[in-house]
Every structure is written in C-alpha cells, then in structure tokens.
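Sequence design from tokenized structure. All designs in this work follow the same two-part layout: the structure record, then the generated sequence. An example of the structure record is given first.
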C-alpha cells in the first residue's frame, strides 16, 4: 500500500513538474526557432518549405477543432448580430504551410510579421489578386510559383519577364522543360516558335475534329466590338475571319500558318492579280462557291462577296486590323513552325512563360496573347484528366491589359474540373469591371483566396471594406437605482450592441501600404498577413538576383557558399559521366517513347511523350525527350 502511494505521488510530481515546465519549453523552442530562422534568412539559406519539420507541440489540431466548434456555434446561434472579424493569431499560426499546400503569406503576430509561412490545403475554385503597381506583387508571385509543386505544370503571363528571369534556372533544375514565347526579346532567352495551326492537330488527336470550335475562339479574340453595339459589325467580320482560317487549315503544310492567312487578308488571291482589291474580290467569290470544305467557308465568304461596297470596306478594315500583329517583324518568323507547345502542358511538369512589356501587351501583342491564353485553357478542357496528376498553375499577371478574353469568362467556374488553378491579377476593380462588365464580381466572390495588396484606389477600398463586413460590440449600461454592496454581483445591466466596420476604407489604405496584405477566403474569416517577397524569403539558389533586388552582403555570402557546394556535386557527376557516358542512348530513348522509328516530327514526339508518362517515371521520359528533341525534323510540324 505504501509503495503504491509513493508511486502515485511520484507520477503526480512528474505531471506537475511537466505542466510547470511546459510553458518555458514552448517559449524556449519558439525563441530558438525564431533566432535560427532570422539568421538563416539573413544569409539566404532558409527554406520555408521545410519549416513544418521543426519540432513543435501538437496544439494546432486541437486549436483547429476548437475553431470549428466556434464557427459552428456562430453559424447556429450567432447570426442575429454582425460577427465579421479577422482570424486571430492562433488561428493564423495553425495554418502552417507545408509542401503541396497553397502559400498565403507570412502570419502576423499582433502588429508584426512572424517567421512562419501559412497556407491553405487546396483550391477548389481559383485565386485572385488586387494589387496596385509598385507594391511588390510580382515579388510575391515569384515566391508562390517557386513553392508550387515541382511535378505540376506552370503557365505564366509574365509582364516585364521578371518572373522568368528570377526562376527559369531554378525551374530547369527541378527537371522541368522551361519554354518562353518572347517576340520582343525582353527575357534574354531565345523564344520558342509556334505554328498555331499545329494546335488543331493536337486537339484532334482523339479523332474528333475541333477545328470549328478553335477557329471560332480565335475569331472572337481577334475581332472584338470596341465601341460598336450593332452585332452585324462584329459577327460578320468574325465569320469572314473563320472562313479564311478554315480554308487555310485545309492547305498543304507550306501555307498552313498565320502569316499566309495575313497575306490573304491584305492581298487576297495575290497570285491571280497584283491589284489587292481585285484579288480580294476573286478570293471571296471563289470561296463563296467552294463546294468542298466546311460550310462556314461559304457562309463567311458570301457575307463579304454580297455586302455593299461601304459595308464590305468596313468588314475588310476589321479583318486587316485583327491580323495586323502578324506583320510585326519580330513575330512573323515565330509563326512558321513549332519548336514548343504551350498547349501541351497538362499532365507534364513543364513551365511556359508568355513575356512582353505592358505597352506591347496592350498594343501590338494583345491579340496573339489572347489567342494563346484561349488556346491553352481550351487544351486543358479537351485533354482528359489523369488520376493523381496535379493541377496547372495558370497565372495571368495584369489580366485587364489583355482586353476581353471570352475563354476566361466562360471557363472560369469550370477550370478546376479541368485541373487548372487560375490566378488572375488586376490593379484596381475599375479596370476589371471595365473589361468584364457582366462578370467581374465572380472573379472575387468565387475565389478561394483573394489577395489585397497596396490598395490606394478609393472604389476598391470601399468594396473591400464592405466585403470585410461589420462587427457588433456590446455596450453595457447600468440600471438606475440603489443596490446594496453585498449584491454587487447580482447587479443587472442592460446590454446593447453597436456595429462598426471591421476596417474603414481609410484604414484599409493605410494597412496595405507596406508589406502587409489582407487575404479574404471563401466562406471563412479573412486573414491579415505579410507578403513573402522572393529576395527576402527564398533560399538564394532558388532565384537569380536582378538590378532592383540584388543580394545583400550576407545573402551574397550565402550564395557563394551554396554555389561552392553545388560545384562539388557537379564535379562528382562529371566523374560519373566520364565513366558511364552522359545522357541516354538514342535506342533506349526511342524504346521508351513507344518504339518510335525513322524520322519524326516534334508534334509526334510530344504526343508519344504524353503517352509514355502513363508507364514510365517523369524523369525517364524527360531524359528521353532531351535525347530525341534535337533529332526531330521540321517538315510538317
């Protein structure tokens, strides 16, 4: 009996000691981790992707359960009053970022940023960002893209090519094929070439002819209404565009490209007459009586052939303006053949960047960029989903600069079903509403996470203030009358509630002026977070410094340290290559890609690679592609 009592007292003493020391252990662990992270960040050797491995007390699942009960109670019994508010510190810290989740930013501890990255588990809809110019949105986008799953494809509209310059080397090191379409050469890398008609072949691999749907989308992207309200002036040129595009689609490979389509628009059947007006007259009358081919050819040509002279001249001007981009001297040579397929990303881990300056995107390159985005989104729609394959991150920076893209508006609610995580970016709601006047609200209301950075636009601040909502605060009033002192705790009080905005527009503008941001979540309380700019949070070997965000002396030293270690590894690999031979033998590569024999085109090679992904590991297929890509013939591509 005495022994059992002593044992019980010993256990009780241990439990009490543990409970007393537990707060000190938690605080000490927090201090040690904070010091380690700050020092490692200072030298550029800290990687937030491994932060979840740091030993911690298992309080997060408990707190998430408490938060769930709190939300249930609020939904069930607390809807009589306004209950909007930001998530608390513990709720934010419980959203610890782990690889595979979607980065939100850095959690904020009361009035300051913490060293912990937070994220959400999955995206069922899309993402959106509203950020004014010069607030660091591109720097934050770079961090998000670098943290994206390395086995998932990435498609980026990259204004100024800043994202490509910062991440291209790191993405290649991940085993990705990195492609860039950069007609104006701002990225410093050679641009891929794309014959857009090759996409029709790619989309029809399963035997279904989708040329009509594809060319109709191109016509809508090329010819838009502008200030015209009569649909005749919009739809008639679109039908004429489709007629010519369909006819070109049936031509031999030599003429089956966009430059030849442009020649027909500007010069007609120039081999029949040197006079453009007469050559166009011959072309439209010939196509209107053409018996072979799709009916749309006769329909569109008949509109041009039978229209009054003044009306036909207006339609002709619309066609000429819609294809003017093809005559850009930097663009035309890139449209004759295909060396890269930005529409074939689904199911791979490739990365594609569409690069140009804002002025070029709003000007000469607006139409082709719209067409490429529509093409890429439509490709994800028609290619079947593969079980276990991750979604494509589709980033459209400065989205309103593209003008109206019908495919984005049409497919936005459905993109998740096609395994696309769409991430749109705008500067102000005014720009977004000007382009998407009927659906602009859906970009925000249907978003799983909307990032609000650097809000200086009054209308945007007012919208966000209303979206954050109001919160009720209790006001206690004493009842008049005398009470005995011993009845103090029984004193009754009247309670009334006053509602206040969670944040006024002025407070929003002040709060988001620095590196702070507000993240509104679908069906959840908003979060006050801090931006994670790549030059401050990424490990130095994950990005390349630029003129605006160069390395500090400490991060430069960290870069040299990592570079020395990397060179040692590369030296060891070279020794292995000397012994066993570099690369994959051609016969092995051909066997992996379906036993391909004889000459082959790049389109055929890509198709076989997509099939091989179902059988072989991605790294093996990528090595086979690297071996056989230089051997692909150009004819018929």
């Amino acid at each position: 009996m005495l022994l059992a009592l002593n044992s019980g007292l010993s256990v009780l003493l241990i439990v009490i000691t543990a409970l007393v020391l537990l707060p000190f252990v938690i605080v000490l662990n927090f201090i040690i981790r904070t010091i380690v992270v700050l020092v490692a960040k200072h030298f550029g050797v800290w990687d937030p992707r491994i932060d979840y491995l740091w030993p911690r007390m298992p309080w997060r699942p408990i707190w998430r359960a408490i938060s769930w009960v709190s939300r249930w109670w609020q939904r069930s019994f607390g809807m009589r009053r306004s209950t909007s508010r930001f998530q608390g510190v513990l709720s934010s810290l419980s959203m610890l970022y782990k690889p595979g989740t979607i980065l939100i930013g850095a959690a904020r501890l009361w009035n300051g940023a913490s060293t912990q990255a937070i994220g959400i588990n999955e995206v069922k809809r899309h993402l959106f960002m509203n950020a004014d110019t010069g607030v660091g949105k591109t720097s934050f986008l770079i961090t998000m893209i670098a943290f994206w799953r390395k086995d998932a494809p990435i498609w980026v509209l990259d204004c100024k090519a800043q994202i490509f310059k910062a991440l291209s080397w790191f993405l290649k090191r991940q085993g990705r094929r990195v492609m860039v379409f950069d007609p104006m050469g701002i990225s410093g890398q050679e641009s891929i070439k794309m014959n857009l008609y090759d996409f029709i072949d790619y989309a029809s691999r399963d035997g279904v002819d989708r040329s009509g749907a594809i060319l109709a989308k191109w016509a809508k992207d090329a010819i838009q209404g502008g200030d015209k309200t009569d649909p005749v002036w919009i739809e008639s040129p679109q039908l004429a565009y489709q007629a010519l595009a369909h006819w070109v689609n049936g031509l031999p490979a030599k003429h089956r490209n966009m430059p030849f389509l442009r020649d027909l628009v500007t010069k007609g059947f120039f081999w029949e007459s040197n006079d453009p007006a007469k050559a166009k007259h011959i072309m439209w009358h010939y196509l209107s009586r053409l018996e072979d081919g799709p009916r749309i050819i006769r329909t569109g040509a008949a509109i041009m052939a039978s229209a009054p002279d003044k009306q036909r001249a207006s339609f002709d001007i619309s066609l000429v303006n819609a294809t003017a981009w093809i005559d850009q001297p930097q663009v035309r040579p890139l449209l004759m053949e295909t060396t890269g397929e930005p529409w074939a990303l689904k199911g791979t881990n490739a990365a594609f960047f569409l690069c140009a300056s804002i002025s070029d995107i709003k000007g000469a390159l607006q139409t082709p960029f719209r067409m490429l985005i529509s093409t890429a989104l439509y490709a994800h729609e028609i290619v079947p989903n593969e079980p276990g394959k991750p979604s494509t991150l589709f980033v459209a920076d400065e989205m309103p600069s593209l003008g109206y893209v019908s495919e984005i508006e049409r497919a936005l609610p459905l993109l998740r079903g096609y395994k696309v995580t769409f991430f749109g970016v705008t500067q102000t709601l005014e720009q977004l509403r000007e382009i998407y006047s009927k659906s602009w609200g859906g970009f925000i209301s249907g978003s799983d996470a909307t990032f609000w950075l650097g809000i200086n636009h009054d209308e945007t601040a007012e919208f966000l203030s209303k979206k954050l909502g109001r919160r009720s605060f209790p006001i206690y009033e004493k009842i008049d009358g005398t009470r005995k002192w011993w009845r103090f705790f029984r004193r009754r009080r009247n309670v009334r509630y006053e509602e206040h905005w969670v944040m006024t527009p002025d407070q929003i503008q002040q709060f988001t002026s620095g590196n702070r941001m507000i993240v509104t979540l679908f069906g959840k309380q908003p979060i006050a977070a801090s931006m994670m700019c790549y030059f401050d949070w990424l490990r130095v070997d994950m990005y390349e410094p630029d003129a605006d965000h160069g390395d500090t002396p400490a991060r430069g030293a960290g870069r040299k340290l990592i570079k020395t270690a990397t060179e040692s590894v590369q030296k060891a690999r070279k020794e292995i290559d000397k012994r066993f031979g570099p690369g994959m033998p051609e016969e092995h590569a051909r066997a992996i890609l379906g036993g391909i024999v004889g000459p082959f085109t790049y389109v055929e090679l890509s198709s076989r690679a997509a099939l091989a992904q179902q059988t072989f590991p991605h790294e093996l297929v990528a090595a086979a592609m690297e071996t056989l890509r230089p051997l692909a013939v150009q004819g018929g591509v």
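The CA atoms of residues 130 and 280 lie 47 Å apart. We note this feature because it recurs in several other targets discussed in the main text.
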